Structures are given as C-alpha cells and as structure tokens.
Amino acid sequence: MESIGRTMVGREREREVLSDFVTASGGRALVLRGDTGVGKSALLEHVADLAAAEKHRVIRAAGVEAESELPFAGLHQFLYPLLSHIDRLDDVHRRVFDVIFGRTEGTPPSVMTLGIAVLDLLSLAASQNPLLMVLDDGQWLDASSTQVCGFVGRRLTGSSVKLVVVLRSDLPSGFDTAALPELPVTTLSESASEQLLDMHHPGLDQRIRRLVLDEAHGNPLALLELPPYVRGNRAARTAEELFGYTGIPLPLRLQQVYGARIEALDDAVRAELLRGALDGVGAGTAADRPGSTHYRMKDADEAADCGLLDIDPLTGNFVFRHPLVRSTAVQTATPNERRAAHAVLARVHHDDLERRATHLAASVVDPDEEVAAMLEAAANSAVPRGGAMAAVAWLTRAAELSESREERSRRLGSAAYIAGHSGQLDQAQRLVRAGTGAGSNDSPASVVASAYVALFEDGDVRSSQRQVFAAIESMLDSGVREPAELLTRLVDLLLAINQYASDKTAWERSHELLDPLGDLVSTYSRIYQDAWGDVVRRGAGVHERVERAFAGVHEMEPWDATRLGVAAYHVDTLSQYRPALQRTVDREVETGALADAMTMLHLIMLDQIAVGEWDEAERTGQRCLELTTTHRHALFVHHTRAYLGLLAALRGEADRARELQAMVDTWARPRGVGFLTQITDTIGTTAALTEGDYEAAYLHAIGITPPGTFEPYAHQAPRTLLDLVEAALHTGRTEQARTHALAARDAGLPDLSPRLAITTYGALAMTATDPTEADHMYHQAETHPAATRFPYELARIHLAHGIRLRHTHGPKAARHPLTLAADTFQRLGAPTWTERARAELRTAGAPTLASSAHLAALTWQERRIADLAAGGLTNKEIGERMHLSPRTVSSHLYRVFPKLGITSRAALRDALARLSSDQNV
C-alpha cells in the first residue's frame, strides 16, 4: 500500500480518516494517540505529505522532555516560522506576543487572550495557503503551550488551519482534558504484522519469524528492529528461554522504550515485575485466565500507574501491557537479581516438576546433582508431549550441573540423541563432542549422532552401518550384561539403517549379532527387527505384538510410536493407528521430534493411499516434501518423492511418475538405499500396469523378486504379488503366475497382514484352473473383513473376477463385479483403470454409464459406512476405521436409510444384498 513517497502496511482505516481530515473544508484538530513504536510518527509524516500535496503549508513542532517545564517553549516552536506575520497584527495582539516571547516586559496574558491572538495569527498566515500544524510527542509540551493549543484546537472551525497532535497513550498529558477529537493508533493485525516483517526482513527462518511476531505483538518498531538481534542470538535461544531469560534480546532503542520507567520503580516493585516476567505472565488481553499457574504479581500499582502493567478485567491480576515490557524487565535486571527471582519462583512452583526444575536450574551457578536429576526428569516428562526441543535444553543444563563426569557425559548423550530426532543434527554432534572430548569420535554416543547425520542428511547407509556394527560389538565386548539405554539406541539405529539399505548380508549379520542377546534387546527393538527386515519369514505374529505395544502410545516417546507405526505398515495395519499419528504429527513439527514427524507424515500418506484417499495423500505428501526440503533431510526428501511418484503412477500420471522415479533412483541407487530403489521399481511396475504395458510391468516386477519366491529382505516383494501375477498372466506366462501365487500361499502371506491375505486369495483365484477353486478364492478375497480398507486391490480383483465370469458364466454374471470395479476406480481417480472396467462392462452388454442407480444414490463414503455397519461395527468402531467422529458416522447413516428404503440398522444387510442382486439384472 503506497502512501505518498512511503510504503505503509495495515493502516487502511487510519489513512482513510487522515485523508478525510486533510481534504475536508474548514479547520479542525485531531489527536493521534498510541503506544511507543506503534507508528504514530509514520502517520504524522503521512498526513504532512497529504497536506503538502494539497498545497497546505506544513509547520512542525515536537515536545521535548527537557523543555517541558519552560513556559511557552512549545508555542515558540510552533509560531517561530510565523513571526513575519506578527507585525501585521493589531497592537493588542502584537503586544501579547511581545510579552510571551520576552521582547517586552509585562503581565503574562491569560490562556483566552493568548489563544485569541494565536487564532488571529494563524488566520492571517493561512490567508494565502491552508495551514497544517503538526505536533509530535505532545505529552512533553509545556503546560502553558498545551493549554493554548487545546484552546485553539477547539476553535478552528471556519478557518483554513488544521492541527494534528501525537501523544503517547502510556503517559499523562495536558491534552487529555482538551476535548479534541482522537484517532487511536493501535498495534498492527497479525496479517499486517506478517506483511511488514516479510517486506523488510524477507527469508527469515520460520521459527525466528514466529518469535519476532509473538514478541512484537503488532508493534511496527519492534517488527523492524528485532530480527537482526534474534538472528545473532539464535544458537542460545532455547537455553535462554528456559534458563533465566524471557523474550527476544532487545536492541538498545527498544530497551529505552520502557527501560527508564522500570529503573525508576521502587526496588520491591521491580522485583515483582522481574518475577512475573521470568514466569511468563501474559501481556494485554491475552493475559492468564482463572486456573493459570503463572506467578501472580502483587503490590505493583506503581508499575500500572506508569503504563507498564494493566489489570486483567476477568481475574483482577496484573499483566504486562506489552511483551516488550516483559523482555525489558529481564534484560535490565542484574544476573544476581534474576537468580534470586528464579529461586523464589522455584518455591512457588514446588508441585510442578517442569517449572520447579526450570527455575531451580536458573537459580544456581555451581554443580548440583539434585537439580540436575530434576531437570532430567522434566525432560523425560516433556518428550512424550511434543517437547523434544525443550528436553534438549533441559538435558544440556542438567549436564552442566552434573557433579560427576560420567553423569555429565550420559546426559549430554541423551540430549544429543533427542536433538537428532528433533532435526537438530548439527547440535547433536556438538553435544556429543562436548560430552566425550574432541578425540572420542568412536564412542558409542558419538556414533549414534554421527550415524544419524550420515543417514538422514545424505543417505550414507554403508559407512553409518559399519560405524554402528562396530559400536555395538565394542559395547558387548566391554561386558554389557543388562539392558542399557545406549545399546538400545544403537540397535534401533542399526535396524533403521538396515531397513533403508535392504541388504541381505547386513540383515543376516544383524540377526547373528542380536538374536543371542535375549533381554539385552528391548521388546520394541525385537518388533522392529522382525517387521522391518524380512516380514515374509519373520513377520508371524507381528501385528498382534504391534497392537499390544500401541496400547501405551499416549505415554510413549515419539520415536517409538513412529517405529511401531513403521512396523504396522509392514503388516498393513496402519489404519487403526493413523488417528494417533495424526494427533501427534502437528505437535512434533512445532517443538518436538521433527524427524519422527516426517516419518509420521510418510505413514499417514501410505495409509491414505491404501484406503483410497488419494487427494488427501497428495496433500500430505506435498506437506512432507516442503518440510523435509526446508530442513535439508535429503533421505526424507527422496523418500517423500518416491511415495509421490507411486501415487502418480496409481493415478495414471505416467510422465510425472517416471520423472520422480528417475530422480529418486539416480540419488538412491549409487548410495545403496535399496528401500527406495525397490519403490522406484514399484513405480515402474505400477505405471506400466496402469498404461496396460504388461511386458514392461512384468520386467519391473521381476526386478524386485523373481516369480515363485519372495526375495529376502526386499520389503516390496510381497507388496508386488498381485502386480507380478497379473503382468505374467497378460503376457502368457501362466506357469510363472501360478507358481508365484502358490508361493504366496505356502509362505503364509495371508496370516501376515489383511492386505496380503486379500492379494494372495486374488492371485490364487486369477491363476486357478479349477473353476471351483477360482470361485472359492474370489469369494475369500472379496468378502474378507478388511477388503474395503484396500479398495484399489479389491477393485482389481473385482475386475479380474468379472472378466472370468463373462467367459465362464456369461455377460449377466459379470456385470456386478465389473460395476463395483468401475465405480471404485472412478472414485479413486484412476482413469485408465476406470476405462478398462467400463470397456469390459460394455462387452458384457451393460450401458456405457455402468453404475447402477442404486449405487449412484449412495456416495462411496456412505456405501463404505453402510457395509461396515451391516458387518456389525458400532459407530465408534466405524469412525476409528474411517477417521471420522461417531457423530459424522451417524449423520451418514441417517442419510443412507431413506436412500435404501429402510428405517433401522438391522435392515442394512438385506438392503445391501438387494443392491447387489439388482446389479445382476
């Protein structure tokens, strides 16, 4: 928004008022009142520019605190440019000015006499051009001048003179009783604040940007001046927030806004302000409400009287007028004053572990094992609630206060471990070096940090794998005889590296190393070991173990919840845990385990793909790609691109799919990241199947696993079962297709996961030569309790079933499964599959628009809810499965009943059966 010669942001209303003020006929006065730094002077410049553009003569004056006791000092400023007009006044008025300007002696005139003389002078001066008089910092104008300006301001009507006075709202002024019209100048809105900040400080780190916006609270001066100071103190930011510092480091100019008033307070009142500031007492209308545990400031009326505090109208508590007051109170205090305040606050929060530990830590200087242990407990309590970044700071401070070298090193190692999970990879390495010494890069704690960095920043699975193997063997050689936290971290990291490498030799070496260790390896780690590697050979019972483990998800550290989610993915039970992941992910992105949040987004996206929510999956993938790119986690960037490529292939976006496939493969294959290269092969398989290029699909599929077996430690091998079988059948390789289907059955895939059960039954049905076996297997696949949770696979099985029925039982029998297939593919957004199913329907004699009237009457979501309800699930159970509230489920059923011509839940099964029967007509 352009003002004349200047850019102004978020002042539309004020600019409109000032424009009307300048252009309106006749004289008038206006007071601009607002806090320091809120932009009053900028508006004053704006109105002066407007007036100059309208050919007004502009006369400026400014109140000066040093001259506030000098009578008529301010009036002299105003009138000095008009002295040449005084000689044209009559003798009476001229003598008045001679007296007040000291040119002659005499009795000072009354306010009325002087005011009338000033009006006469102004009228004379404005006879040629309109006059605008602007007064900045009017609160410092001497009392005599203030009275005259108020008198004059009330009597400008009918003249060509306008008066604008700027006042600070936190200081009393003689203009307070002048009865002049006022325009309040408030802080900027959130959107205007963001615009102003981005205009003057583009490209700020998002966390710094948020800190500045919160601290400035809409104050333009703070928005403009804070960013350089925040950037300069970024490394210590978290520790300062938690240990003895509140708010952003303030430049001197902002400290001066409130500093002088704070220093003038009584010592006891300053101490109250300091305690309130260090405990995070709110500011302004966002103040603490009933039930708040913040410190309650007492006997601070003096601070309220001078504009530093307000009183919350709901609680009656003192609150800071602005966040800058709070920051200034802390920065102007001495270190000893801050430590004393923290000691008091620790006693106040005796029953609050995290607050007490924080304040105690800031109140001591020398090592103190009791305080260190309390900080460690606070960190442990914060992590499951999304407080990983706070936990890093607490553990770092706990290490500083540790009385033994061993405890210091252990706590720094824990801080480094959490820092790695929270995306602070550089800090993780610094913390480990601080705990082990510069020459101890092969220590187990150092290996955890350096291997994390090597894996996530650059996908270096080979060197990180070697490091971790050596570290675990070293720990075992040193005589570890009971479960150890550091050993668990190394084991879990090794398993994660192995998963990404997907290397048979490394996995077998890991089993040889870990299997004999018994209880030294945690229960969770055993789940990861069996699920992440070769689920075909080691996955029996994993989904029950995951379910038992997830029962305690609310008390679980985010990395364990994430790892268990990955295990659930490998056995295709993600849907039941997705609500927990969705609740967690936003929290972790802000202040928690950022790296785990990235994996959670991957898991949410995978489940959205599986259940057919492809638009939502695209949005989740794009969000994850932005997050991983911003934080430069190269492994996760390419991992996300792989899933986006797979989704594009499913949707028939072949060019985009292959572009992403090439991008990921080029990065992952030289590094040996087999997990991702398997996905790129799957992208090729899926894209080729979507296009109907079955030969290419077959060649891609056997690149993952040969027919008749499931390549060990290739996680995509069982997932491509249906792809390989279908591609083989369409290319005349019926023997290979049958061999592969039987291998799936013999390997026990139906017992490992619901998806593998459906695809195994489908593959057996497609390849069966015995019609009875085929019918039985199709029935097994299509009526499986979890079939509707995997609509893409189910639709492909319906399509194959329909084609077989058309050949064996005639066109009429084929229409039902073909209609289900076409409807599902259309809903998913798979156009080539939709057209394929419709073509089969046309061959079966069905109309071009194949969907039945009954099915068209029910949306996909309504149909799915109806099917689940007919199966006996409660609204709550349906909601958990479909990620809806029970009330939403009830609303859908309320709409379904009249569409089906029924009035009760008990009639659902028969009504849905009639739908199926009608489709055979």
Automatic annotation (TrEMBL):
Listed Pfam families: AAA_16, GerE
Keyword vocabulary terms for this entry: ATP-binding, Nucleotide-binding
Domain HTH luxR-type: 851-916
Official protein name in the record: AAA family ATPase
Taxonomic source organism: Streptomyces yanii
Source species taxonomy: Bacteria, Bacillati, Actinomycetota, Actinomycetes, Kitasatosporales
